[in-house]
Design brief:
- By secondary structure, this protein is α/β, with parallel strands linked by helices.
- Helix 6 links the parallel strand 5 and strand 6.
- It starts with a strand and ends with a strand.
């Protein structure tokens, strides 16, 4: 008997987040929406993650209007988003009422499936968001962030799945953001969840960077996975995801099928094949990188770090940073590397490479070490905890971080009402809440309309010619700029 495997198409969100530093303009996506809507996907991931940030920071686009547009263009599809639990789509914890409001407004504007995760796999940081999704009647997908360490085990992941089901999860997602999920662990974890909890839907999300995860998807399917994530082939591989069409071909002649429409897939592929060259300036240089089995850097983090370092003339330091990341991760108690922990650990690794280990510590990394993001599976390095305590001038905590927050919604409403260009909506209040340093500028320019940062081949050639003409020898110190959660950090280093 043939079993249908659902497919979540990620080309409208995670694919371009991972491959081209999340710069794709909405106008370059709308032309594919009808085919995506009719192709037969289980869901279409199109919002959340870092798209919200990118919309207002780079594209002058209202993220809520993006969601409403997707809802209008894909009326037959389950729209899916990635939600960072108590972090929502920002880079800090938010008070519970803000979490409730964000989920409520996301559902009102068209969201169907909320993939709720926490960067540390701390269930306390997912509980409120999960409850909020259940209250709206939408699909709450409890998420396990996969990583590898001496402390992470199959049994531990199965136990976490049970905790998420106890919260009311409608399905469980196994999220492999760094392409670390090898075939056998994929089989063991999915089978363990199925054997332990019965007929629970299991979704599996993998990136492709290490070259092994298409096999991992097959083993997960054999173990009972119900839905897997892929991206159309013209926006796949590298630090992105496995190709949708490759999954379809892999299942031919087996007892499994996707029932996806092949003609629609061809049209979706061709659409993004034509669009992708416009974003060449943001492309990740990574194709296959098996060093990730040791560095554990996820696709989105890798492409954004490369883009950031290249912009500052520091692309040659990426390998040193990748070697430092797992050391910082271990000091922090082995958190999975996914937003925001990936940015926090990654930025600290950059600082360690440029300035010496923990000579300069970001405020966010200090908070991670002190428990203000939640609990990690492992013990934090006590020496680094003490450095963080002295720098931050506050004590470590063990309670749920959001329990320390005071109600903030009314103050956010008042603050937003004073901003030029804000329209008085709850959506604008939420935009300001998550990005208080970026939102005010966005509100003043929103009426100018979205901006496309992609470039035609002709524009790129002209810019290269101009750059050659203006090139000259550079001497003196180098200043590196690293952005984390809307805050810029500068480090100046003398040239060797």
């Amino acid at each position: 008997m043939t079993r249908t495997i659902g497919v979540t198409e990620v080309v409208l969100r995670d694919a371009h987040q991972s491959l081209i530093a999340i710069r794709m303009a909405m106008e370059d996506m709308v032309g594919a929406c009808e085919d995506i809507d009719q192709a037969g996907y289980w869901s279409v991931e199109c919002w959340g993650g870092a798209t919200y940030d990118a919309c207002i920071r780079y594209l002058n686009e209202d993220p809520w209007e993006r969601l409403r547009t997707f809802r209008k263009l894909m009326p037959n599809s389950r729209l899916q988003m990635l939600l960072r639990g108590q972090n929502l789509l920002g880079y800090r914890h938010y008070e519970d009422m803000v979490v409730d409001k964000f989920v409520e407004k996301s559902a009102e504007n068209g969201m169907d499936v909320f993939r709720v995760f926490d960067a540390l796999n701390d269930p306390r940081n997912m509980a409120r968001a999960m409850a909020a999704v259940k209250k709206t009647g939408k699909h709450a997908q409890g998420t396990i962030c996969y990583t590898i360490s001496p402390l992470h085990t199959t049994e531990g992941y199965i136990k976490l799945a049970g905790q998420l089901l106890d919260m009311g999860a409608d399905s469980i997602a196994l999220k492999d953001m760094a392409a670390l999920l090898a075939p056998q662990p994929a089989y063991d974890i999915v089978k363990g969840i199925k054997d332990t909890y019965g007929d629970v839907q299991v979704n599996v999300h993998c990136h492709a960077t290490t070259g092994v995860t298409l096999v991992s998807l097959m083993k997960a399917i054999e173990a009972g996975a119900d839905v897997v994530d892929t991206s159309i082939s013209s926006m796949s591989l590298g630090p992105g995801h496995n190709p949708t069409e490759s999954l379809v071909a892999m299942l031919q002649g087996t007892e499994y099928t996707t029932n996806l429409d092949p003609e629609r897939l061809v049209r979706i592929r061709d659409h993004f094949a034509a669009v992708r060259p416009k974003y060449k300036a943001f492309e990740s240089a990574t194709l296959v990188d098996t060093d990730i089995f040791s560095s554990q850097i996820p696709g989105g983090m890798l492409s954004n770090m490369e883009s950031q370092l290249k912009q500052q003339g520091a692309g040659d330091r990426i390998k040193e940073v990748m070697e430092e990341v797992p050391l910082v991760k271990a000091d922090a108690g082995h958190p999975p590397l996914v937003t925001p922990s990936s940015q926090i650990v990654g930025t600290q690794a950059v600082f360690n490479v440029l300035m010496g280990r923990y000579k300069v510590m970001t405020g966010e990394f200090a908070d991670l070490m002190l428990g203000y993001y939640g609990e990690c599976i492992g013990e934090r390095n006590p020496e680094v905890v003490e450095i963080a305590r002295q720098q931050a001038k506050k004590e470590p905590i063990t309670v749920r971080p959001a329990d320390l927050l005071t109600p903030e919604w009314d103050a956010l409403v008042e603050a937003t009402s004073k901003l030029e260009g804000a329209n008085g909506s709850d959506e604008d209040v939420l935009t300001y809440a998550m990005f208080p340093t970026v939102a005010p500028g966005f509100f003043t320019t929103r009426d100018e309309g979205p901006k496309n940062v992609g470039k035609t081949p002709e524009q790129m050639a002209a810019e290269m010619d101009a750059a050659k003409g203006a090139s000259k020898a550079v001497t003196g110190p180098i200043t590196y700029k690293v952005s984390l959660g809307g805050r810029d950090h500068s480090v100046t280093v003398e040239r060797a």
